[in-house]
Protein backbone atom coordinates (compact mmCIF):
# COMPACT_ATOMS: atom_id res chain seq x y z
CA UNK A 1 0.00 0.00 0.00
CA UNK A 2 1.69 3.21 -1.11
CA UNK A 3 -0.12 6.07 0.60
CA UNK A 4 1.87 8.99 2.00
CA UNK A 5 1.77 9.50 5.75
CA UNK A 6 1.71 13.17 6.70
CA UNK A 7 2.77 14.43 10.12
CA UNK A 8 -0.55 16.14 10.76
CA UNK A 9 -4.07 14.79 11.13
CA UNK A 10 -6.20 14.98 7.97
CA UNK A 11 -7.85 18.38 7.63
CA UNK A 12 -9.68 18.16 4.32
CA UNK A 13 -11.65 15.05 3.53
CA UNK A 14 -13.87 14.46 0.51
CA UNK A 15 -17.03 12.41 1.02
CA UNK A 16 -18.78 10.89 -1.97
CA UNK A 17 -22.25 9.96 -0.74
CA UNK A 18 -24.65 7.84 -2.79
CA UNK A 19 -27.67 10.12 -2.44
CA UNK A 20 -30.61 10.24 -0.08
CA UNK A 21 -32.62 7.15 -0.95
CA UNK A 22 -33.45 6.19 2.64
CA UNK A 23 -33.83 7.50 6.17
CA UNK A 24 -30.74 5.53 7.09
CA UNK A 25 -28.69 7.27 4.38
CA UNK A 26 -29.91 10.70 5.58
CA UNK A 27 -28.74 9.82 9.11
CA UNK A 28 -25.35 8.67 7.84
CA UNK A 29 -24.91 12.00 6.01
CA UNK A 30 -25.92 14.02 9.10
CA UNK A 31 -23.60 12.06 11.37
CA UNK A 32 -20.67 12.34 8.95
CA UNK A 33 -21.02 16.13 9.00
CA UNK A 34 -21.28 16.12 12.80
CA UNK A 35 -18.29 13.82 13.29
CA UNK A 36 -16.22 15.96 10.89
CA UNK A 37 -17.17 19.14 12.73
CA UNK A 38 -16.24 17.61 16.11
CA UNK A 39 -12.75 16.89 14.77
CA UNK A 40 -12.26 20.20 12.95
CA UNK A 41 -12.22 18.46 9.57
CA UNK A 42 -13.16 20.43 6.47
CA UNK A 43 -15.59 17.97 4.82
CA UNK A 44 -16.15 18.32 1.10
CA UNK A 45 -19.50 16.66 0.44
CA UNK A 46 -20.71 15.38 -2.94
CA UNK A 47 -24.17 13.86 -3.40
CA UNK A 48 -24.10 11.44 -6.35
CA UNK A 49 -27.87 11.12 -6.73
CA UNK A 50 -27.59 7.35 -7.05
CA UNK A 51 -25.22 7.49 -10.03
CA UNK A 52 -21.84 5.78 -10.04
CA UNK A 53 -20.62 8.13 -12.79
CA UNK A 54 -21.24 11.08 -10.43
CA UNK A 55 -19.27 9.33 -7.70
CA UNK A 56 -16.36 8.74 -10.05
CA UNK A 57 -16.45 12.43 -11.09
CA UNK A 58 -16.54 13.49 -7.43
CA UNK A 59 -13.54 11.29 -6.61
CA UNK A 60 -11.58 12.74 -9.53
CA UNK A 61 -12.44 16.24 -8.39
CA UNK A 62 -11.31 15.43 -4.82
CA UNK A 63 -8.06 14.07 -6.23
CA UNK A 64 -7.55 17.21 -8.34
CA UNK A 65 -8.16 19.36 -5.25
CA UNK A 66 -5.53 17.40 -3.33
CA UNK A 67 -7.74 16.39 -0.38
CA UNK A 68 -6.03 14.54 2.49
CA UNK A 69 -8.38 11.53 2.30
CA UNK A 70 -11.59 10.34 0.70
CA UNK A 71 -14.67 8.62 2.14
CA UNK A 72 -16.61 6.63 -0.43
CA UNK A 73 -20.04 5.02 0.05
CA UNK A 74 -20.11 3.07 -3.24
CA UNK A 75 -23.52 2.75 -4.87
CA UNK A 76 -22.61 -0.53 -6.60
CA UNK A 77 -19.83 -3.04 -6.03
CA UNK A 78 -18.17 -3.11 -9.47
CA UNK A 79 -16.35 -0.57 -11.65
CA UNK A 80 -14.09 1.21 -9.15
CA UNK A 81 -10.61 -0.04 -10.10
CA UNK A 82 -9.47 2.89 -12.27
CA UNK A 83 -10.53 5.71 -10.00
CA UNK A 84 -9.20 3.93 -6.89
CA UNK A 85 -5.88 3.47 -8.69
CA UNK A 86 -5.88 7.20 -9.48
CA UNK A 87 -6.39 7.99 -5.78
CA UNK A 88 -3.59 5.61 -4.87
CA UNK A 89 -1.24 7.18 -7.40
CA UNK A 90 -2.05 10.57 -5.85
CA UNK A 91 -1.30 9.03 -2.42
CA UNK A 92 -4.77 9.80 -1.12
CA UNK A 93 -6.15 7.10 1.21
CA UNK A 94 -9.72 6.01 0.53
CA UNK A 95 -12.03 4.62 3.22
CA UNK A 96 -15.18 2.76 2.17
CA UNK A 97 -18.35 3.40 4.13
CA UNK A 98 -21.24 0.95 4.56
CA UNK A 99 -20.94 -0.81 1.18
CA UNK A 100 -18.15 -2.86 -0.34
CA UNK A 101 -16.43 -2.88 -3.74
CA UNK A 102 -15.06 -5.87 -5.61
CA UNK A 103 -11.70 -4.15 -6.28
CA UNK A 104 -8.41 -5.29 -4.76
CA UNK A 105 -8.16 -4.58 -1.03
CA UNK A 106 -4.84 -2.82 -1.73
CA UNK A 107 -6.77 0.02 -3.37
CA UNK A 108 -8.40 1.26 -0.17
CA UNK A 109 -7.14 1.82 3.36
CA UNK A 110 -10.04 0.25 5.21
CA UNK A 111 -13.82 -0.26 5.03
CA UNK A 112 -16.26 0.54 7.81
CA UNK A 113 -19.48 -1.42 7.66
CA UNK A 114 -21.65 -4.17 9.03
CA UNK A 115 -21.54 -7.84 8.11
CA UNK A 116 -24.21 -7.58 5.42
CA UNK A 117 -24.59 -11.34 4.97
CA UNK A 118 -25.05 -11.68 8.73
CA UNK A 119 -27.83 -9.04 8.69
CA UNK A 120 -29.78 -11.05 6.11
CA UNK A 121 -29.10 -14.16 8.15
CA UNK A 122 -30.49 -12.60 11.33
CA UNK A 123 -33.64 -11.54 9.45
CA UNK A 124 -34.05 -15.04 7.99
CA UNK A 125 -33.52 -16.75 11.34
CA UNK A 126 -36.13 -14.49 12.88
CA UNK A 127 -38.63 -15.67 10.26
CA UNK A 128 -37.67 -19.32 10.73
CA UNK A 129 -38.49 -18.97 14.44
CA UNK A 130 -41.60 -16.84 13.93
CA UNK A 131 -43.19 -19.32 11.51
CA UNK A 132 -42.15 -22.36 13.55
CA UNK A 133 -42.61 -24.87 10.72
CA UNK A 134 -45.87 -23.36 9.33
CA UNK A 135 -45.96 -22.99 5.55
CA UNK A 136 -45.07 -19.44 4.57
CA UNK A 137 -44.71 -17.79 1.17
CA UNK A 138 -42.24 -14.92 1.26
CA UNK A 139 -41.92 -11.91 -1.00
CA UNK A 140 -38.61 -10.08 -1.06
CA UNK A 141 -37.86 -6.43 -1.80
CA UNK A 142 -34.23 -6.21 -2.80
CA UNK A 143 -32.01 -3.16 -2.48
CA UNK A 144 -30.29 -1.42 -5.38
CA UNK A 145 -29.26 -3.94 -8.02
CA UNK A 146 -25.52 -4.59 -7.96
CA UNK A 147 -25.02 -3.01 -4.52
CA UNK A 148 -23.24 -5.08 -1.90
CA UNK A 149 -26.12 -4.89 0.64
CA UNK A 150 -28.60 -6.17 -1.96
CA UNK A 151 -26.31 -9.06 -2.90
CA UNK A 152 -25.27 -9.99 0.64
CA UNK A 153 -28.58 -9.47 2.44
CA UNK A 154 -30.22 -11.73 -0.14
CA UNK A 155 -27.60 -14.41 0.38
CA UNK A 156 -27.71 -14.23 4.18
CA UNK A 157 -31.48 -14.57 4.23
CA UNK A 158 -31.48 -17.44 1.73
CA UNK A 159 -28.82 -19.26 3.77
CA UNK A 160 -30.92 -18.88 6.92
CA UNK A 161 -34.10 -20.32 5.39
CA UNK A 162 -32.31 -23.08 3.43
CA UNK A 163 -33.44 -26.49 4.64
CA UNK A 164 -36.72 -25.12 6.04
CA UNK A 165 -39.15 -26.52 3.51
CA UNK A 166 -42.05 -24.54 4.97
CA UNK A 167 -40.44 -21.32 3.73
CA UNK A 168 -40.30 -20.27 0.10
CA UNK A 169 -39.43 -16.98 -1.60
CA UNK A 170 -42.14 -16.74 -4.24
CA UNK A 171 -41.31 -13.27 -5.58
CA UNK A 172 -38.22 -11.12 -5.42
CA UNK A 173 -37.62 -7.77 -7.06
CA UNK A 174 -35.65 -4.61 -6.48
CA UNK A 175 -37.30 -1.68 -4.73
CA UNK A 176 -34.07 0.34 -4.98
CA UNK A 177 -34.00 1.01 -1.22
CA UNK A 178 -36.76 3.66 -1.53
CA UNK A 179 -40.22 3.94 0.02
CA UNK A 180 -41.85 4.84 -3.27
CA UNK A 181 -40.46 1.83 -5.11
CA UNK A 182 -41.06 -0.43 -2.11
CA UNK A 183 -44.73 0.51 -2.22
CA UNK A 184 -44.96 0.20 -5.99
CA UNK A 185 -43.35 -3.25 -6.13
CA UNK A 186 -45.36 -4.51 -3.15
CA UNK A 187 -48.53 -3.43 -4.97
CA UNK A 188 -47.51 -5.58 -7.91
CA UNK A 189 -46.71 -8.54 -5.59
CA UNK A 190 -50.12 -8.22 -3.93
CA UNK A 191 -51.89 -8.05 -7.28
CA UNK A 192 -50.06 -11.10 -8.60
CA UNK A 193 -50.66 -13.13 -5.43
CA UNK A 194 -54.44 -13.15 -5.08
CA UNK A 195 -54.62 -9.69 -3.50
CA UNK A 196 -51.96 -10.80 -1.00
CA UNK A 197 -53.83 -13.88 0.30
CA UNK A 198 -51.00 -16.05 -0.97
CA UNK A 199 -48.30 -14.04 0.84
CA UNK A 200 -47.35 -14.76 4.45
CA UNK A 201 -44.23 -12.64 4.92
CA UNK A 202 -42.29 -9.74 3.45
CA UNK A 203 -38.52 -9.53 3.70
CA UNK A 204 -37.29 -6.05 2.72
CA UNK A 205 -33.59 -5.23 2.43
CA UNK A 206 -34.26 -1.92 4.21
CA UNK A 207 -36.90 -0.36 6.43
CA UNK A 208 -37.86 2.37 3.97
CA UNK A 209 -39.03 -0.19 1.41
CA UNK A 210 -40.85 -2.00 4.23
CA UNK A 211 -42.61 1.21 5.25
CA UNK A 212 -43.74 1.76 1.63
CA UNK A 213 -44.86 -1.87 1.42
CA UNK A 214 -46.80 -1.60 4.69
CA UNK A 215 -48.81 1.20 3.12
CA UNK A 216 -49.51 -0.97 0.06
CA UNK A 217 -50.61 -3.88 2.28
CA UNK A 218 -53.02 -1.61 4.17
CA UNK A 219 -54.43 -0.20 0.95
CA UNK A 220 -55.03 -3.80 -0.22
CA UNK A 221 -57.23 -4.30 2.86
CA UNK A 222 -54.79 -6.55 4.74
CA UNK A 223 -53.09 -6.09 8.10
CA UNK A 224 -49.32 -5.73 7.87
CA UNK A 225 -47.63 -7.42 10.83
CA UNK A 226 -50.48 -9.95 11.09
CA UNK A 227 -51.76 -11.07 7.69
CA UNK A 228 -48.31 -10.43 6.26
CA UNK A 229 -45.30 -10.53 8.59
CA UNK A 230 -42.77 -7.78 7.95
CA UNK A 231 -39.03 -8.15 8.59
CA UNK A 232 -36.46 -5.65 7.36
CA UNK A 233 -33.09 -4.00 8.04
CA UNK A 234 -31.77 -0.59 9.26
CA UNK A 235 -33.78 0.25 12.42
CA UNK A 236 -34.91 3.71 11.28
CA UNK A 237 -37.35 5.57 13.58
CA UNK A 238 -40.38 5.02 11.33
CA UNK A 239 -40.11 1.24 11.52
CA UNK A 240 -40.39 1.50 15.30
CA UNK A 241 -43.58 3.54 14.90
CA UNK A 242 -44.89 0.79 12.62
CA UNK A 243 -43.80 -1.84 15.15
CA UNK A 244 -45.57 -0.01 17.96
CA UNK A 245 -48.72 -0.01 15.80
CA UNK A 246 -48.36 -3.78 15.27
CA UNK A 247 -47.58 -3.30 11.56
CA UNK A 248 -43.94 -4.47 11.50
CA UNK A 249 -42.39 -7.44 13.27
CA UNK A 250 -38.60 -7.22 13.24
CA UNK A 251 -35.70 -5.09 12.06
CA UNK A 252 -31.92 -5.51 12.16
CA UNK A 253 -30.06 -2.36 13.20
CA UNK A 254 -27.38 -0.83 10.99
CA UNK A 255 -25.53 1.99 12.75
CA UNK A 256 -25.49 5.21 10.71
CA UNK A 257 -22.27 6.33 12.40
CA UNK A 258 -19.75 4.87 10.00
CA UNK A 259 -17.79 8.13 9.80
CA UNK A 260 -16.66 8.18 13.44
CA UNK A 261 -14.59 4.97 13.15
CA UNK A 262 -13.45 6.03 9.65
CA UNK A 263 -12.11 9.40 10.85
CA UNK A 264 -10.41 7.72 13.85
CA UNK A 265 -8.70 5.20 11.58
CA UNK A 266 -7.58 7.98 9.24
CA UNK A 267 -6.28 10.13 12.11
CA UNK A 268 -4.12 7.28 13.44
CA UNK A 269 -2.87 6.46 9.95
CA UNK A 270 -2.01 10.10 9.20
CA UNK A 271 -0.28 10.55 12.55
CA UNK A 272 2.18 7.69 12.52
CA UNK A 273 1.22 5.28 9.78
CA UNK A 274 -0.88 2.98 12.01
CA UNK A 275 -2.58 0.58 9.62
CA UNK A 276 -6.22 -0.08 10.49
CA UNK A 277 -7.71 -3.54 9.93
CA UNK A 278 -9.03 -3.94 6.37
CA UNK A 279 -12.58 -4.13 7.73
CA UNK A 280 -13.92 -2.26 10.74
CA UNK A 281 -17.14 -4.03 11.62
CA UNK A 282 -20.12 -2.30 13.19
CA UNK A 283 -22.75 -4.16 15.24
CA UNK A 284 -26.02 -5.62 13.93
CA UNK A 285 -28.77 -5.95 16.52
CA UNK A 286 -32.22 -7.47 16.09
CA UNK A 287 -35.20 -5.43 17.34
CA UNK A 288 -38.72 -6.80 17.81
CA UNK A 289 -41.89 -5.46 19.47
CA UNK A 290 -40.46 -6.80 22.79
CA UNK A 291 -37.90 -3.97 22.70
CA UNK A 292 -40.33 -1.15 23.55
CA UNK A 293 -40.51 0.28 20.01
CA UNK A 294 -41.99 3.65 21.04
CA UNK A 295 -39.06 4.23 23.43
CA UNK A 296 -36.59 3.38 20.65
CA UNK A 297 -38.50 5.70 18.31
CA UNK A 298 -38.16 8.55 20.82
CA UNK A 299 -34.42 7.89 21.18
CA UNK A 300 -33.84 7.87 17.43
CA UNK A 301 -36.27 10.40 16.04
CA UNK A 302 -33.97 13.44 16.25
CA UNK A 303 -30.78 11.75 15.13
CA UNK A 304 -30.95 12.91 11.52
CA UNK A 305 -32.91 10.03 9.96
O1 LIG B 1 -25.66 0.42 2.38
C1 LIG B 1 -26.59 0.49 3.41
C2 LIG B 1 -27.97 0.57 2.88
O2 LIG B 1 -28.10 1.63 2.00
C3 LIG B 1 -29.05 0.82 3.91
O3 LIG B 1 -29.48 -0.33 4.54
C4 LIG B 1 -30.11 1.39 3.06
O4 LIG B 1 -31.17 2.00 3.75
C5 LIG B 1 -29.29 2.36 2.29
O5 LIG B 1 -29.85 2.96 1.30
User: Kindly state the mean pLDDT as a whole number?
Assistant: 96
* H/E topology pattern: EHEHEHEEHEHEHEHEHEHEEH
Largest sheet: 6 strands, parallel
Strand sequence of the main sheet, in spatial order?
2-1-3-4-5-11
* DSSP summary, beta strand count: 12
| Radius of gyration based on Cα positions | 20 Å
Number of helices: 10
Q: Percent of residues in helical segments? A: 40-55%
Strand content: 15-25%
The geometry reads as: elongated
Report how far the terminal alpha carbons are from each other: 36 Å
Low-pLDDT stretches are none
The chain-level structural class is alpha/beta
Ligands: alpha-L-arabinofuranose
Features:
305 residues; alpha/beta; 6-stranded mixed sheet; binds alpha-L-arabinofuranose
Description:
By secondary structure, this protein is α/β, with parallel strands linked by helices. It has helices at residues 23-38, 52-65, 81-89, 116-131, 148-161, 179-192, 207-219, 237-244, 259-272, 293-300; strands at 12-17, 42-47, 69-72, 94-97, 110-113, 136-142, 167-174, 201-204, 229-234, 250-253, 279-281, 286-287. The chain is built from ten helices and twelve strands. It has a six-stranded parallel β-sheet, with helices on both faces. The longest helix has 16 residues, at 23-38. The radius of gyration is 20 Å and the shape is elongated. The model has no long low-confidence stretch (mean pLDDT 96). The structure holds alpha-L-arabinofuranose (AHR). Alpha-L-arabinofuranose is lined by residues 21-22, 24-25, 98-99, 149, 177, 206, 208, 233-234, 254.
Amino acid sequence: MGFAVSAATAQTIGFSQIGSESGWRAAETTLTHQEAEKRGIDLKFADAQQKQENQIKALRSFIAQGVDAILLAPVVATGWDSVLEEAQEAEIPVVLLDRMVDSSKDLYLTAVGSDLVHEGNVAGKWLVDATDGEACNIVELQGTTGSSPAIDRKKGFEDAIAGHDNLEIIRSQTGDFTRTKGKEVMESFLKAEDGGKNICALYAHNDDMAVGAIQAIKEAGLKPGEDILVVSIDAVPDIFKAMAAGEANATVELTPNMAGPAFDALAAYMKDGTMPPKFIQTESKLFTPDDDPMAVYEEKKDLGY
